[in-house]
Please model this.
Amino acid sequence: MSASSASQKLVSAPVAHLEGRVRAPGDKSISHRALMFGAVTVGETTIEGLLEGEDILSSAAALRSLGATVDRTGAGAWCVRGVGVGGFREPSDVLDMGNSGTAARLLSGLIASHAFTSFMTGDASMRRRPMMRVIEPLSRMGARFIAREGGRLPMAVTGAPTMLPIEYRLPVASAQVKSAILLAGLNTPGETTVIEPEPTRDHTERMLQGFGATVRTRALDDGARAITIVGQPELAGNRHIVVPGDPSSAAFAVVAAAIRPGSDVLVENVGINPTRAGLYETLREMGAALTFENERVMGGESVADIRVRGGALKGIDVPPHRAPSMIDEYPILAVAAACADGTTRMQGVAELRAKESDRLASVAAGLEANGVRFEIGADYLHVQGCNGAPPGGGLVATHLDHRIAMAFLVLGTAAKATVAVDDGATINTSFPGFAALMNGLGAKIT
Ligand code: S3P
Model:
């Protein structure tokens, strides 16, 4: 886990261009869900293409502590023997979520309906992140929580023997909160409904349906959507899940190629679910030569190979309503924006302050260290592009945030001078092998 890993400085030197074909690592969101949902079926779930990053290993360890059998059978191949809906047992030790907000929030939802007490913690980044957003709705359903001030980890969760179904309108666009409530609803009599004002990633809904749960989604008059789960099904076991590549991880190679004229890169096997694909739409609007090839459906998710050629980009206004579909991609978008001609305005992105680090502040500090001009506010970041290579030469503080580390290493490939990040070890949470993959395309990350 990154809390215990030694920090490791990485440097990225400028290169002429990037070229080649790579395969994106497994999708982090889908990998967490495959393990967790497998753990509440009766029977055996086999998974291929699972992301073997530290975040996912945190989920796997927690599920074992709760009584599920979770085994690795080969590279990316895993097998989960579930305990059935409502079948978890009291863990004998603290559940350590490491760096993973998805593990912490989704598991809170799952354990909230079990009549035992468990304790949850995480690394220094995770212990700063808000949990009140799940504590509040799950308390309405009957669970009890004792957390640190402001609803921070470590916290204790005492589940309710019988939960109450609720209808809950999300105050923030968050797939983690939506999923936590739906997962609590899984072991709650009756129907539990979450209303989301903006569509967020829908992997929970899709995969639960794949396991045989009844999940209905309907559009409301005000443009919101209501997602209802019918409680206490017996989820079908013996499913095989194929995890597609992660669009949020693919984004680093794609942007690295897009900002370097002469580059030509194909990233294979990338999930292009519309609730995740906002960055790709944005890059096209900026003028990137980006195409989806060989589009297909894999395990209920749309997948494509993404081909991108380097060229000139222009600054654009990124609409706030697009934020949920690219919420993890703003750090790397800021890097694309730094190389573009003109200003890129990212608006309505206050949620970035609640990620692995305060990403608005971390990105701004990284841009500053590398000679890129910007304007920052409570919920916006405007990046003034350098119309080509940014100065570079900076040392970037990653604050235990994998995406800050990867984004600024990509900046280094296209800058005038080498860019360093203080801690590359955190990349292992979501993208083990990142430096080797990028170097295979021609980057110089050491
Ligand atoms: C995720 C949802 C998003 C995203 C995170 C993964 C998920 O978080 O940032 O990396 O798997 O549901 P929020 O729900 O907090 O927006």
Notes: The radius of gyration is 21 Å. The mean pLDDT is 97.
